[in-house]
């Protein structure tokens, strides 16, 4: 197990956001985190990357992450935020180059530049290299942010709603890139995701959160059941199986 | 057809090259302005004489400047010019760094109350003759100490309440109002001559330039500027937001406090000698940013040079425009800086902030 979480808890002041989170993440695994709004999906990702400081244990290859420096963590875990707004103008190239920050001193080397180019190529956004990041589309920005996390040379990627700003074509494209990265490079992907059908189609395993705790864990077919969805989301769905994966057709709000 | 990797690399290298070119041109411009400024004044010295006098110190026997030129340049004009350069560099670097860590285009040593605290310290010394140190350095030391006190309060509040940029900016603005109110109070009860002295101090000038002062300011520059330059990657990452910066390995709170402390030290050690020279710390970073973008590796040196060029040029005009009277440079920086600034804003097509 590459990442292990034991008894993780997090509160904002007196409001408890996450409680009793126990879970793991394997190499090459794509793990989808689903659950209603405000249930702590994003908070969980932030706690793992120590953007927020939780109680409990987060172990990276058996080593307690709270004992590691930020730079050490940044060399292992990449975090892709949902979107970036109000950012200073910078070229896409410079934006991806930021991902080299954990590895470099004042000068950026030839190697760093090559790394950036490799990631731009991998994400198929070479043509954007010298464009202003703020002037690119939502789908393009998402790819740039993933490229930046990959430029960190990490083996764990945490993504917060990677598809929420994208049209259906870009949604599939991003998900395919992520699953391919996990299979070819052995990267562990953990993503908070709203779209249950995308989660089902592309995740190896799904964790369903509800009210700050884990409601259910397992492969998509065992977690994404009509019953679970009714009790967690308050929605009646019809579940159809296609190639062994469940797909949900929403019928009505059951309240 | 997407571009080839080699093409992108070449284009990016050119993109960096343009930034370096801009910095080089500024450096050349600064050398030119130093020469012109050293040659202008009531004593008649030609441009060549001025450069000869300057270079003669470093390479004796090559240039043979006149005695008059050597005397006037080294004893009168050069300390003033060099103080202008040092102050321009320091204020501009402090301004860029503050704008960077606070992600706010209005942040500068002035908007954050550091200069108004220095002003209060000076006023206290001038009006009441009271301060932490006696003698010649009474006003200087008082201005310095109050400036550091103000930044200490901002950093203290940030430590206590978290270093969110908004918190720090609001604390800074509150401090600015507090100290200017206290200065007004002192002036209200002060003698006329002393009040005039306070007003003159606040205008800011390079009249009192001396080699001793230069020594002190240079030492602080040598201490602070390289440290800030080393942080330029962290500043770049922080421009993308605190969350991103943390996920990329930056200890955001620490960097923000350290940068604030260094920028305050720079500002305090300059304004305590020169008075509050307005505008340089705010506008130089913007001019540099509009020209070469926000990459702090190049932005910091570029704003430093813009600051130096602007301040030396403004002082040159201030010395000559109603000669033999000399205007305080603090008045001139805005007269020269604002039109230049407007021109750049109007000409700019791309977003830069």
List its traits.
heterodimer, A: 255 residues, alpha/beta, Rossmann fold, six-stranded mixed beta sheet, four-stranded antiparallel beta sheet, 9 helices, B: 353 residues, mainly alpha, ABC transporter involved in vitamin B12 uptake, BtuC, 14 helices
Provide a descriptive summary of the structure in words.
The complex is a heterodimer of chains A (255) and B (353). Helix content of chain A is 33%, strand content 30%. Chain A is an alpha/beta fold. Chain A folds into two domains: 3-76 and 154-253, Rossmann fold; 85-152, no CATH class. A six-stranded mixed sheet of chain A has the order 6-7-8-3-9-10, sandwiched between helices. In chain A, strands 2-1-4-5 form a four-stranded antiparallel sheet, with helices on one face. In chain A, a hairpin with a 2-residue loop joins strand 11 (235-242) and strand 12. The mean pLDDT of chain A is 91. Chain B has a single domain, classed as ABC transporter involved in vitamin B12 uptake, BtuC (Orthogonal Bundle). In chain B, 77% of the residues lie in helices and 0% in strands. The model of chain B has no long low-confidence stretch (mean pLDDT 87). Chain A binds chain B through residues 46, 49-51, 69-75, 77-79, 81, 84, 86-91, 93-95, 98-99, 101-102, 104, 106, 113, 117, 120-121, 124, 126-127, 129-130, 132, 134, 152, and chain B through 2-3, 5, 8-9, 11-12, 15, 103, 229-230, 232-234, 236-237, 239-241, 243-244, 246-251, 293-295, 297, 350-353. Chain A: Its EC number is 7.6.2.8. Chain A: GO terms for molecular function: ABC-type vitamin B12 transporter activity; ATP binding; ATP hydrolysis activity. Chain A: InterPro entries: AAA+_ATPase, ABC_transporter-like_ATP-bd, Metal_Ion_Import_ABC, P-loop_NTPase. Chain A: This is Cobalamin import ATP-binding protein BtuD.
């Amino acid at each position: 197990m590459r990442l292990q979480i034991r008894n993780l808890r997090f509160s904002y002041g007196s409001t408890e956001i996450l409680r009793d989170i126990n879970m793991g993440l394997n190499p090459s695994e794509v793990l989808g985190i689903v659950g209603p709004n405000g249930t702590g999906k994003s908070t969980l990702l932030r706690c793992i990357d120590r953007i927020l400081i939780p109680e409990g244990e987060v172990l990276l290859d058996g080593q307690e992450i709270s004992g590691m420096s930020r730079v050490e963590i940044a060399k292992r875990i990449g975090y892709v935020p949902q979107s970036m707004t109000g950012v200073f103008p910078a070229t896409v190239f410079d934006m991806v180059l930021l991902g080299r920050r954990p590895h470099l001193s004042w000068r950026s080397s030839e190697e760093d530049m090559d790394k950036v180019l490799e990631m731009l190529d991998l994400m198929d956004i070479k043509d954007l290299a010298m464009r202003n990041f703020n002037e690119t589309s939502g789908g393009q920005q998402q790819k740039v942010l993933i490229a930046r996390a990959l430029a960190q040379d990490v083996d764990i990627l945490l993504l917060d709603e990677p598809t929420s700003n994208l049209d259906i074509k870009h949604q599939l494209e991003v998900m395919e890139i992520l699953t391919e990265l996990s299979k070819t490079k052995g990267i562990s992907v953990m993503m908070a995701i709203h779209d249950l059908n995308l989660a089902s189609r592309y995740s190896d395993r799904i964790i369903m959160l509800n009210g700050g705790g884990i409601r259910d864990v397992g492969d998509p077919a065992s977690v994404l059941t009509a019953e679970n969805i009714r009790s967690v989301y308050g929605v009646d769905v019809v579940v159809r199986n296609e190639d062994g994966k469940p797909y949900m057709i929403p019928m009505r709000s059951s309240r | 057809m997407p571009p080839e990797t080699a093409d992108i690399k070449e284009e990016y290298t050119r993109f960096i090259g343009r930034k370096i070119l801009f910095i080089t041109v500024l450096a050349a411009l600064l050398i030119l302005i130093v020469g012109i400024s050293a040659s202008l004044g009531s004593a008649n010295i030609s441009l060549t004489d001025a450069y000869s006098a300057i270079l003669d110190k470093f390479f004796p026997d090559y240039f043979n400047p006149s005695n008059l030129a050597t005397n006037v340049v080294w004893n009168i004009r050069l300390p003033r010019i060099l103080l202008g350069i040092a102050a321009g560099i320091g204020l501009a670097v402090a301004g860029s760094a503050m704008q960077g860590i606070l992600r706010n285009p209005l942040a500068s040593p002035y908007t954050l109350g550091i200069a108004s605290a220095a002003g209060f310290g000076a006023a206290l010394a001038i009006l009441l003759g009271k301060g932490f140190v006696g003698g010649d350095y009474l006003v200087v030391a008082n201005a310095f100490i109050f400036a550091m006190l103000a930044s200490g309060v901002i950093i203290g509040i940030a430590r206590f309440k978290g270093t969110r940029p908004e918190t720090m900016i609001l604390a800074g603005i509150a401090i600015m109002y507090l100290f200017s109110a206290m200065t007004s109070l002192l002036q209200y009860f002060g003698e006329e001559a002393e009040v005039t002295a306070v007003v003159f101090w606040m205008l800011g000038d390079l009249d009192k330039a001396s080699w001793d002062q230069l020594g002190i300011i240079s030492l602080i520059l040598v201490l602070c500027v390289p440290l800030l330059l080393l942080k330029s990657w962290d500043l770049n990452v922080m421009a993308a937001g605190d969350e991103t910066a943390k996920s990329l390995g930056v200890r955001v709170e620490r960097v923000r406090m350290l940068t604030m402390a260094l920028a305050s030290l720079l500002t305090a050690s300059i304004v305590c000698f020169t008075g509050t020279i307005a505008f340089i710390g705010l506008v130089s970073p913007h001019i540099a940013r509009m020209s070469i973008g926000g990459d702090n590796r190049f932005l910091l040196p570029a704003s430093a040079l813009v600051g130096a060029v602007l301040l030396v040029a403004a002082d040159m005009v201030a010395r000559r425009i109603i000669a033999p009277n000399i205007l305080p440079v603090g008045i001139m920086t805005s007269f020269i800086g604002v039109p230049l600034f407007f021109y750049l804003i109007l000409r700019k097509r791309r977003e830069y902030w």
